[in-house]
Amino acid sequence: MFVGLQVAHCCKKETIEDRYTRVMGNRYHAGGKIVVVGSSNTDLVVRLSRLPRPGETLLGGKFATVAGGKGANQAVAARRAGGRVSFIGRVGRDEFGERALFDLARERIDVRGVSRDHSTPSGVALIMVSARGDNIIAVSSGANGRLTAAQIVRARKIFSGAAVVLLQLEIPMPAVCIAARLAREAGARVILNPAPAIPMSRALLKNVSILTPNESEAELLTGIRVTHEASAARAARRLHEQGVGTVIITLGSRGAYVSSVSMCERVAANAVKAVDTTAAGDVFNGVLAVALAEDRSLRDAVHYANAAAALSVTRRGAQSSAPSHAAIRRFMIRGRKRS
Ligand code: ADP
Question: Domain 12-39+70-119+143-334, what fold?
Fold first, then answer.
């Protein structure tokens, strides 16, 4: 067992969920509530001089355990940026699941919507990285893959009062669809980050307020190769035709192309020296949700998300690279825009 998961308190064991309630009480943040529905994984990373060939055993690697999963990454990014965040997901009754819950609760994310699976292990990714930066990744979705529509319905109270609900596609599609529907019924704005990109029904897309693919996801969803602003605009139009009101295509170091009723333009990225772009998209989405929950305009929200994501690429890691509210503000005052 990982230490500190159940805290002895007044002679009775305190669960992580109880602890969240005790620590957070009724404290509110600047913006409305954000609900993230998605995956949480544990990444088991071995760094080696080179990648082993099939059947080969290589000694001498350095090992690290890193919290991951797009849902959890985006929840942490939103929380660090000052959002009031609830997470809905599923983990196994194993040490990885305990640890994932503990890490989220430590960030002061409400984890009361996370269910536990008795028969399926938590999601893990086995990652090998060579000195040249090449990698091999094997993912077992585990309990993430068993998040059902019924469990989302059971957690429906969490959507009540939410300003923004943030979704990705690393959990089963029925769970994504019902979450989008319940979110809309609760009056929340729905951001869907379609990663990994898989075909989506019109019924789902009609409940999505903002779709946020990156370039390759936009290409997979539309068949249009996104290489510059004109092709981004074409891909966004194709997605509007499928029923989405606002499309934001993230363009890596070139920022993000925004297509909505009020604006159709690229918002330039901030000029930084990129060290590690892992989870840049997750930081972008988490911080976009915070800015919209604070009632900022779409343009301001994208500027803010661009700044946070640029800052994250100057740091190593996924969740570890998500910047704080104060760091984003400081960076926005000092930062430079690319052309
Ligand atoms: P993903 O990580 O999903 O592939 P992108 O690569 O499009 O997504 O990056 C998401 C966002 O991160 C971009 O819209 C931009 O704001 C920021 N970003 C990514 N790479 C850089 C970079 N090299 N310099 C500045 N900002 C970056």
Answer: UDP-N-acetylmuramoyl-L-alanine:D-glutamate ligase (3.40.1190)
